[in-house]
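Rhodanese-like domain protein, Mycolicibacterium hassiacum. Tokens?
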Amino acid sequence: MPTTFDESVVLLDVREHDEWARGHAPGARHIPMGEVPARLAEIPRDATLYVMCQAGGRSQRVAQYLAAQGYSPINVSGGMLAWAAAGRPVVTDDGRPGPV
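Tokens:
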């Protein structure tokens, strides 16, 4: 998985607002799991789509939902815990390092 994202690659973080605020992957897009159905238009259909949560359970359910809607999502197994454990950056909204 890339560590930077542009229009061709989307890392969709489906964790809750408080989890996102503590720390997230730089460049990720945040749509909490419960808001995904109402915000589908914000998710580009032609992008390579990675879906992430804290450990991989919620993102797996969202990935299954997105697949049923015609997307080709990739669930990030292990979620933000695996992201951070791999030494990838975790930041807050103001760009400072943050915890998972």
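The chain has one domain: 9-85.
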